[in-house]
Please model this.
Amino acid sequence: MNEYVANESRYEQMEYRRCGRTGVLLPKVSLGMWHNFGGVDDYERSRTILRHAFDQGITHLDLANNYGPPHGSAEETLGRVMDEDLRPYRDELFISTKAGYDMWPGPYGEWGSRKYLMASLNQSLKRMRLDYVDMFYTHRFDPNTPMEETLQALVDIVRQGKALYVGISNWPLEPTRFAINYLRERDVPPLIYQGKLNMLNRAPMEEGILDLCHQEGVGFIAFSPLAQGLLTDRYLNGIPTDSRMARGKFLRKEMLTDELLAQIQQWNAEAESKGMTLAEWALRWILEQQGVTSVLVGASSVEQLDKNLRVVKG
Model:
């Protein structure tokens, strides 16, 4: 592959939004590396997608310690691409990772203890070949660890210079309120909340989390905005044999009920009447919600990424 030189017009390709009441601007569409960037995936394809994303003004790359498969391999992919292509542009990138879910065996390999969070970030930095991340998340709420322990670990991670900002992901409403106050009182206010939000799953809106973030000046970034592909044209006429639902790991066939299919087909008709694809319609819906900063999209190809980028180019 040729030596990489970034597209000079990359920042003309993207729109950026302020993240809560902070100095950080994030692209309206960010790249999530949950799937398609692991050790089982073709490296050159992953590399091409990452280069293309940056060329289109996507500055925010979102990872977690266990993204792959196998665990950790998405971070390793990014580390390799940093060395081969993106190192000169490090200060133009906003890279996040997380810890909270199962990562290694034994009692210290998941949840929210200080030991796990500190050790996990140290490992992540080595895999990504970075001195620091721009943002580090607690990936899920731990009901068995005192919130003060989890949150103080985030404070200390920032004070150690291993992360510039911290974020919260998948926490319930009241613990999130506590976290915002705890971190703010220690001069490490949370930058952003990451939650699952799409037209089929509106829990952050219904539970009050999106409103809380907006009121408190905390950004919000939506993951799974296309509901694992349900809100695309992928399943409009049934279940393709090569689809994620056919494989049955993250989507099960029984989820696509007649009622759900009818709803998706109705939304697709509405999107087409506006000259949009269902995916573009779904992404626009999220970005129209008050308090939303960005949406995280995945990509298995440059072409798929470009389709999702229509939401900022249409």
